[in-house]
Design brief:
The complex is a heterodimer of chains A (310) and B (321). Helix content of chain A is 75%, strand content 0%. Chain A has 310 residues and is mainly alpha-helical. Chain B is built from 16 helices and no strands. Chain B is mainly α and 321 residues long. The chains are: A mainly alpha (310), B mainly alpha (321).
Chain lengths: 310, 321
């Protein structure tokens, strides 16, 4: 609204000041030139931004390969005399990287498993089935995404760790994240795009709902599954607070937790603590970054899609 | 035929055609639950999950905050007397809690405007370039998908006393260094979180920018409006709904701050100068075994965030709301 008002006001203003017919003919040219200049300005801004965003990752890799930490400006460049893989060995000796990656994988995999199975069911029901209470389920899905986790922290800890005795178990880790509501929303949106006549025809032919879902609907929404898996992946893979509270047993800790414990406790005793921390950081970051680069198109459409919900 | 008639009123599930349904006994019950009552069964696991793992604890948090609650071994029955607002009084009179709210205020004052401004500026620039667009988008998004625990490692390395940043700054380097300086610790954490989250917000703005018609820019440039005039008069009002969303999300994530003060400043140091409310919840509730006090802190925090969000919606959303 205010845009068009401002626009009109400016037009009036301009028309009164420049009544000459020759003026508008010249203006578009200057506009084009301005846009080109602006392109260069934007490019410098974006380039500077990209440097600020990527440099720490480059520095993470360089630092993880240094024999002794070099914090001078030259330390930001690869130096053949100062390269070693010893930091990776050192961090692996104190936190068992493979075990940590495996635990992160089980934790993340469990969340993805529950999200895909139950998310597809409820997403399909919300989009293509008509039943009493559908509006309530849909409203619930939207509201759940606004529940602040701070408020759940203490009651969930009391319930899961104290009452149900699920401390130091994967189930206890997975439970609060088990079904990602944003992924449910993504499934619903994709199923909604399929023509409902398709499902009506299948129902007339006597196919059961489960069969319709499995044989007709799911094969048509494969991209939705990729999107939902990616979207769900970064949550538990990067999560620190909850698994940190639930796991005291080192052999069950996801890599994010064991690395954090290493940073806050053990690092002081290592010969090159920063090298070892950065080596662990590289191992933790690599799977998420690789997955993201490989599937970047889906990642980005996912977030735009989930932003529409408002 | 029959399918079409049963479709009559899908939302209320009321029978569509009167006489036809009265003749078919079982159909009527089916219609009461809607044409596909199986949908209830398909939704059941999700609904049960939400009620048991998310909705119930929400109420439980409020219950805990009003009772003298302590940890017990599983399946042990103990008295947990109602204590009214006692836990809330304990929380609000705790200097560490007051300090943490002050800290989070400093955090939000730095983080939220910086996030809104930078993400809009970068999204606007990204919307205009044609070359290397994918590369730029990718590079902004990488910090967002990476675990905070991993990136914290590099920031510690960069911001330590003898780190690269202080080497570059030379005599201008602050003493004591960034993360151990009680004046700079919280701003540094705020800067870190802005950097980490910016990619996500750039994407939100990028989506919003697609909704602004090109004609507006064209006519503005015909009228001789320079890029700043265009930015302030077309772009900023055009993405206002997205700005509301970005402000709210940045505030909510900011209020949830835990990992960064825990790791970046070694547990909210120096001397509590970067402790966040969630960190205090962890300390009081789980380390010191006072879940009732921690739950009360959680309730106070959420109410505070809701109030701030309402004010922000008024300020950023403008008159339209």
């Amino acid at each position: 609204m205010s845009v068009t008002n401002a626009q009109n006001a400016k037009n009036d203003d301009d028309a009164s000041r420049h009544p000459e017919p020759a003026e508008p003919a010249l203006r578009p040219d200057s506009g084009v030139e301005k846009r080109r200049n602006l392109g260069v300005g934007s490019f410098i801004l974006l380039g500077g931004g990209a440097f600020v965003f990527l440099f720490p990752f480059y520095y993470m890799l360089i630092g993880s390969l240094q024999t002794s930490p070099d914090t001078s400006i030259f330390g930001a460049f690869p130096n053949p005399a100062n390269i070693t893989g010893a930091n990776y060995v050192q961090i692996n000796e104190s936190i068992n990287l493979f075990r940590g990656l495996l635990n992160s994988g089980i934790f993340t995999g469990g969340v993805i498993f529950f999200t895909v199975i139950f998310g597809l069911l409820v997403g399909y029901a919300l989009a293509q089935m008509k039943f009493r209470g559908r509006g309530v389920v849909f409203g619930m899905m939207l509201l759940v995404q606004m529940i602040p986790f701070q408020l759940l922290l203490i009651p969930l800890y009391v319930m899961i760790v104290r009452d149900y005795g699920l401390a130091d178990s994967f189930l206890g880790m997975i439970l609060p994240f088990a079904i990602n509501s944003t992924a449910v929303f993504v499934f619903r949106q994709y199923f909604l795009q399929l023509p409902s006549t398709l499902f009506e025809a299948a129902r007339i032919d006597g196919a059961s709902e489960l069969r319709i879902l499995w044989q007709i609907a799911i094969p048509l929404v494969r991209p939705a599954i990729v999107t939902a898996v990616l979207l769900t992946f970064i949550g538990p893979w990067n999560e620190f607070l909850w698994p940190f509270l639930v796991t005291k047993d080192q052999s069950l800790q996801p890599l994010a937790v064991s690395l954090a414990n290493y940073i806050s406790n053990v690092a002081a005793t290592a010969s090159n603590p920063f090298g070892a921390i950065l080596a662990g950081a590289c191992v933790l970051a690599a799977p998420a970054v690789a997955l993201f680069i490989f599937f970047q198109r889906q990642f980005i459409s996912t977030n735009i899609g989930s932003s529409v919900k408002g | 035929m029959s399918l079409r008639s049963s479709e009559g009123n899908p939302v209320t599930g009321k029978p569509a055609g009167g006489p036809v349904d009265r003749r078919l006994g079982p159909r009527k019950r089916k219609n009461f639950l809607g044409p596909q009552p199986l949908g209830l069964l398909f939704s059941a696991p999700y609904v049960i999950y939400v009620l048991a793992v998310l909705a119930f604890p929400l109420g439980y948090a409020v219950y805990i905050s009003f009772h003298d609650f302590f940890f017990t071994a599983p399946r042990v029955k103990v008295e947990r007397p109602f204590v009214g607002f006692e836990n809330y009084i304990t929380v609000l009179s705790d200097p560490a809690v007051q300090r943490s709210f002050l800290n989070i205020g400093v955090f939000l004052i730095i983080n939220v405007p910086l996030t809104v401004g930078l993400s809009l500026l970068l999204a606007n620039a990204l919307n205009r370039v044609t070359r290397l667009k994918t590369f730029f988008r990718l590079s902004y998004y990488v910090p967002y998908v990476t675990a905070s625990v991993a990136v914290v490692g590099v920031w510690l390395f960069l911001f330590q006393g003898s780190g690269l940043l202080n080497t570059l700054l030379g005599p201008l380097a602050p003493a004591p260094s960034w993360l151990v300086n009680s004046w700079l610790a919280m701003p540094t954490v705020a800067l870190y979180v802005t950097w980490k989250q910016l990619g996500f917000f750039i994407l939100l703005y990028l989506a919003a920018l697609q909704n602004i018609p090109d004609e507006l820019y064209e006519s503005a440039s015909v009228d001789g409006g320079n890029k700043w005039v265009q930015f302030w008069n077309i772009t900023v009002p055009g993405v206002r709904p997205a700005s509301v969303l970005v402000t709210l999300l940045a505030t909510i994530t900011g209020a949830n701050l835990f990992t960064e003060p825990y790791l970046l400043t070694g547990g909210g140091g120096p001397d509590g100068a970067s402790a966040s409310p969630v960190f205090i919840m962890y300390q009081r509730g789980i380390l010191q075994g006072n879940p009732d006090v921690a739950a009360a802190l959680g309730v106070v925090l959420v109410i505070g965030v809701l109030l701030i969000a309402l004010i922000q919606k008024r300020l950023v959303g403008g008159k339209e709301d």
